[in-house]
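The instructor's notes for this session suggest beginning with a concrete chain rather than abstract definitions. Hand out the sequence below and ask the class to guess, before any prediction is shown, which regions might be ordered.
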Amino acid sequence: MSVAQPTIDSLIALPSVAPTSDGASLERRSQLDLTVSCSRTGQSFVQRQYATYPFRLSGPLRLDPLDRSRLYLYMMNSSPGLLAGDDLHVSLHLNDRTRLYLTDQSATKAHTMAIDQPAKVAYAIEVGAAATLEFVPEPLILYADAAVEQTIQITLQPTAHLFLSEMVLPGRLARGEFYRFHRYVSRVQVRTVDRLLFADTTRLEGKLNPFRHSSVFSPLPAIATVIAVQPTVDLQRLSAELDTFTATDEQPIMAASSQLPNCNGLLIRAAAANASSLKTYIRFALNCVRRSRGEPNLPEIPK
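After discussion, reveal the predicted structure:
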């Protein structure tokens, strides 16, 4: 009996450009669209991808020998980082029963820009019934005079699972660059098809932040937010396991979780001395979520 094979529709387009008053070209918008589907044998695969400069997507990877159904992908950016006037749009659609782990290859650098020309990043994410999205980007580094505005719109089916993390560094900490950016704003909305579940907004002021040298911000400047919506998980048991994380003198970190409204999920905030500590904690948190669902731990993710 023949078995239908998954089909892949892959497109890479040139950037959309518009002429400026002096005849030069100015990039207007960059876009990455990704659709993931499930084969008859239960394997997730890339059904469609469309990318304009500077976006690229890695080939499909099966990094976990114990879980061949889950798809691992890298989202790649060939530009030097976020620049003034950037307008980046990412659209992710996971069909029913799909399983995707998505990350990027390196930290995103937000460069110097005028405060009235911020870089804008917008995500539109849909996760289907019984589908699982784990989206774990590398840190965003806010260079001096950077301004970034980000929006994340997520639509979940009632049985969808979501693990979304975000890491922000307030400068090149190793160079002593600390809260010299303009501002950073991130707005997240998570909803079902017909109603809003919850919203979360992070706003960081840089140079004008009156608390940047306080005892709260200075020792642990790297911050992270994790949203874990897990409809089939015992949240009390998950919270208890998250509390078992042990910080060390080499990797100091503070973290706390609270239950999300209108869904079975947790909001986790963490602050650490550096990005390495945050990555360690986020990997720990994701493994806690996986174990609570009877799944193997996260495999090694080559970077």
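Then share the key points. Residues 37 and 116 are 40 Å apart (CA to CA). The two ends are 41 Å apart (CA to CA).
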